[in-house]
Amino acid sequence: MKILDNITNTVRADLRVEIKRGSKISVAAACFSMYAYQELKKQLESVEEFRFIFTSPTFVKKKAEKQKREFYIPRLSREISLYGTEFEIKLRNEMTQRAIARECADWIRRKAKFKSNTTGENMTGFMTVDAKDAQTAYMPLSGFTTVDIGCERGNNTYNMVNCMEAPFSQQYMQLFDQLWNNREKMQDVTDVVIENINTAYAENSPEFIYFMTLYHVFSEFLDDISEDVLPNEATGFKQSKIWSMLYDFQRDAVLAIINKLEKYNGCILADSVGLGKTFTALAVVKYYENRNKSVLVLCPKKLAENWNTYKDNYVNNPIAADRLNYDVLFHTDLSRNGGMSNGLDLSRLNWGNYDLIVIDESHNFRNGIGTHSNTQENRYQKLMEKVIRAGVKTKVLMLSATPVNNRFVDLKNQLAIAYEGNSENLDELLNTTKSLEDIFKQAQKAFNAWSKLDQEQRTTDALLRTLDFDFFELLDSVTIARSRKHIEKYYDTNEIGKFPERMKPISVRPCLTDLNNAINYNEIYDQLMQLTLCVYTPSNYIFPSKLQKYKDLTHNKGENLTQTGRERGIQRLMSINLLKRLESSVNSFQLTLTRIKELINGTIEAINRFEKYGSADISMYEASRDDWDIDDENTEFFTVGKKVKIELADMDWKSWRNELQQDADVLELLTLMVADITPEHDTKLQELLRLLDEKITHPINPNNKKVLIFSAFSDTAEYLYDHVSMYMKDKYGLNTAVITGTIDGRTTIKGFPATMNNVLTCFSPVSKDRDVLMPNSRNEIDILIATDCISEGQNLQDCDYLVNYDIHWNPVRIIQRFGRIDRIGSRNKVIQLVNFWPDLTLDDYINLKSRVETRMKITVMTSTGDDDLINPEEQGDLEYRKAQLKRLQEEVVDIEDMSDGISIMDLGLNEFRLDLLDYMKRNGDMDKKPSGLHAVVPATEELPEGVIFVLKNINNSVNVDNRNRIHPFYMVYISTDGEIICDYLNLKKLLDDVRLLCRGKSKPISEVYERFNRETDDGRNMADMSELLSEAINSIIDVKEESDIDSLFSAGGTSALMSAVSGLDDFELICFLVVK
After folding, report:
1. What is the pLDDT of residues 1056-1066, one digit of tens each?
2. Quick one: which H or E segment has residue 49?
3. SS3 for 812?
4. Which of 62, 225, 545, 797 fits 823 for a cystine, CB–CB 3.0-4.6 Å?
């Protein structure tokens, strides 16, 4: 008898001597590893038979009863150790497992039999070798792995094995035979073992590797998913009409939204313009209505028509069969206390009783509490108080195309709606280390630092690296955002239809007029700068001693926007508005001049009457709707407060009259200056007619004559209609229509009821289902002139040519306008955007705007002593607008590319989780699959040849600094020549790539895998791959060191000293994808 210490004398060495040709080997052990087979391959090839007993139930059909707990290596790891135990990772990382598995399976079929203990009884492991002339027994032997036979140390302090000859060894042989033949306790598992080893060398489908990656990466997420937060299929919402109308990417969003609403009570859906957010939201509404919840939709007034159509019994409601039954109210209703709105009586409305609120265009709520004037209770607070905190628990779904511009606060304010303004509510649900407030502070700090970088360094990547892990975790939990690029890339666009191709925008800069010695923009601006517009601010002239009297009057109970605040707001808006209207059209400018002039003259007359007769009241000015564009009209100044009469006796009317007179003179002069610019000499109008001629005679898509013209002001729209409609009808016989928010539409079709819906239907008959709505109508409207009342949420994709007759001050608006025709499934090949710019350089233009704004602020200062000059935030805004407008001259941009800011598109991981859940539902668990599997896929233009490795860090020391969002897993994409294409910090991109390469490929792709197998000699020669793997692991360590060094110089301590990744042995290869 001798003792093998497995250090100098190993079991392996002994077996190599003892096993002779024709020996019989019997092993009883906890597990069998194919790497141990490989070590003794030559000897095992020559044996006559090999019998193996698994000492605890392994691979058996019926499970041992539950109460007998297993104390040894749990069953799962026993079964997986076929492909190598956790101490054989090094061998697995050589990636030769495929070749070994194939040989091992072949050998088992010929020579080996496996049985397993089916009871819970304990058995100690041993092994016997019966050569003809000698019998040897080895004991104890816990498993048949490279560790147990002494090739690797494993984690044993000592590993002594006794080696016995006859007669002792014979007792062991008898014992083995007894066990082997005991039917009760043993079950044959040879077939199962072979089948399992097969999986290690079968060709895998790319899709399988994609899901395997997800399974590992998101394994923790699987643990915390509970059935309550997953959409409950039993409600039957998947049988609904709306569900059948959604595209795949919309369905994904619906399921994700329901999941987030259940879990976090709120969700922001920020798909970009033209991706059908309304339908996605309707499916969510349907889900909740099926569960008997009451739903409220809050939308801007101009979108009411849209939302109402989907719930009413109309012929053009595609989902009438679903009988949706939500209420629709408007953003502005939150500021009202009574009156009717959209058929509901606001004074009796139980705001607190809604279970789900859908807020369309929720970016209108991005100014949280206490912005404008600190005294005013804005809609945001109303929403909080009336709806969210009151009554039943309310879930909030926000739809917004632009939730982040350059301030993360905007995003925070929208989220706050969901967690009822109390951030602890959300902190508990999120698994982040910091609180919500801190996360946002840090993100804003990172963002500000990033925005100060030079243009070259200011890439999205650079920002993603500085943002905190928690920030992603947070966005991931509560937002869903996809861009067009994303949809085109990751979904099958054949079924969806393509987006049209955008041509380079045409920029037109007509001067004001073609008259000689006529006036130009700059001269008008100079005059405008002299206006004080004091007619809007009578309160400034009230004697200090009399102020109190009016304070009490104007604070009409509950509405706490002061009269002065309102007046000043209107004054400031009006001065900027004059500029906007001049840019829009000379005609609108003239109208406004006349309106202000009449107002001033009226006021001066009243003062004169007072001087003469001693009595006259001045009522505060109420602005007329026509003067404003849609954004200004939406401000509180016009919805809050009542008229107040001021007695002139309480005013310093003399100074007021002098200033009014000065304004009147300037206005008189301005009116004269522009008086001779008639339509014939209005260069801008003539330019538009020329463009229309060009478009009709040379259409950009065959036979498409449609043109959509946007203006910010209804006056301009009417003016254009008056001139364009005659021109088009006479010259080409085409019909024109105009839609503004204020009046009913007008069209050149005789006897046509020009409601907004009718007009849009005849303008875009295909996308608006004219055949259903007006089956007998053949009316075509080819030219549509409109204000921004249709710039959001309408689908007018029959049209391929869009004109911005005036550039809106908010660049996002321009993109939204374009989104009317730039939509999925458009029939047009190409679409064209035309922008009219004022005849100035962009810098002059932007500076002008800031000059006017500053000017107004100075007026405010002098009259009140507030020093509220342009604050840095607005300065930033101006810079930002400038950059955006610059880009708009060159190209059509998506909102998400628009900002120098960042879009939430870059950040979420949710769709991967949903993919995985779906797969698990259909195919069950993946925990028995060996690691180290691979698939081969063809390379694409964007994704070059190389390998994507998915690794697991085994000693959890790597991610101390929390940079890797899926620690302990790491993914690296490395090209065949060892270049890192995408490193582990850029996780979203990597997962997107894998998804793109694999999704939908459920069969192995033979032309690429055959080539790969030839190159690697069927997996025997994996040296190149192994080399790439170590490069990849080194890259993780390098990137880690770089980011450590960065952290030395950053606040909050360094991560350099805390964790080290020492190399290959610290990582286990989970799976890899070869891109050929």
Report:
1. 444 444 566 77
2. strand 49-54
3. helix
4. 797
